[in-house]
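Colleagues,

For the teaching module next term, I've prepared a clean inverse folding example: a structure given as tokens, and then the sequence designed for it. I'd like students to try predicting residues themselves before seeing the answer, so please don't circulate the second half yet.
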């Protein structure tokens, strides 16, 4: 009981995780020139994905009650491209959305409304269609996610809204030591870091989000449970139990499995039985066909104003 109380009070697992992530990243980058590619690629992807999961944990208020300290732990974006502040604001808006998956209302939606689809050039439609399959999501998805995000940021700035600048300035400050370590201390070519760490790490993270929501009018049925094996669950810090996370976004990552096991029947009753057996199953089911259509089945452009 005393140990449990101490863990709850200090959130020791998250502190240990944080130390482990940065230590593993440091060792992998330091030994870049001696490790074979077939070790470096999966290990680099796993560590970068795990760091992204740590960022998710931090924005939900862990491991301390001080936001500035929590964010200090996660602001160095090891996958380089996404300012922590922009991710934080977008993800909090996602949790507050009353219409999950609705384009324009849920900032993390991967769907399009027919009006936007009709205006797209054919190559863009083909890219969206490819990313509705698991190979497309894993191979093209990271480039698409970065392009969509940067395009959105550019349009915001072009409208005269300078709020994204504060995120990019903070991002640049935290990227200086990261890039110095990668490029100067470890002498890793930039392309190699992207190829062995940043891009596959983002790819792995996008696998988690690939099937975590579905379009539903009943919002309680929109969020999945993926009963993943422990290596994948750890990479995602148990966010594969996504329905539980949406019900209790304040719950620390290491408490999610026990919470789910204690009320599995209740969770699945509330989310309409939206449970998937693992990520291999998700990849297999959508390898040669769309997971679902890139077009949202019932939202239209007018819904953005309602």
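(Answer key — instructors only)
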């Amino acid at each position: 009981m005393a140990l449990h109380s101490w863990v709850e009070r200090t959130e020791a697992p998250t502190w240990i995780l944080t130390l482990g992530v940065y230590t593993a990243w440091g060792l992998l980058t330091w030994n870049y020139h001696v490790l074979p590619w077939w070790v470096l690629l999966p290990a680099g992807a796993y560590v970068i994905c795990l760091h992204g999961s740590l960022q998710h944990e931090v924005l939900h208020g862990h491991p301390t009650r001080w936001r500035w300290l929590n964010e200090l732990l996660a602001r160095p974006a090891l996958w380089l491209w996404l300012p922590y502040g922009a991710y934080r604001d977008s993800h909090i808006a996602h949790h507050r959305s009353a219409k999950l998956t609705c384009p324009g209302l849920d900032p993390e939606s991967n769907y399009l409304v027919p009006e936007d689809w009709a205006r797209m050039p054919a190559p863009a439609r083909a890219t969206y269609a490819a990313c509705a399959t698991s190979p497309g999501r894993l191979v093209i998805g990271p480039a698409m996610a970065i392009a969509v995000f940067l395009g959105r940021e550019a349009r915001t700035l072009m409208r005269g809204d300078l709020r994204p600048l504060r995120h990019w300035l903070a991002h640049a400050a935290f990227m200086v030591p990261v890039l110095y370590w990668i490029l100067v201390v470890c002498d890793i070519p930039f392309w190699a870091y992207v190829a062995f760490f940043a891009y596959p790490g983002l790819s792995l993270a996008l696998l988690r989000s690939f099937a975590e929501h579905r379009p539903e009018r009943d919002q309680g049925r929109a969020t999945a449970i993926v009963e993943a094996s422990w290596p994948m669950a750890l990479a995602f810090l148990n966010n594969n139990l996504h329905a539980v996370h949406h019900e209790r976004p304040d719950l620390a990552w290491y408490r999610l499995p026990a919470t789910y096991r204690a009320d599995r029947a209740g969770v699945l009753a509330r989310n309409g039985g939206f449970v998937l057996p693992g990520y291999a199953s998700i990849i297999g089911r959508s390898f040669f066909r769309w997971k679902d259509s890139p077009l949202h089945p019932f939202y239209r452009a007018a819904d953005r104003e309602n």
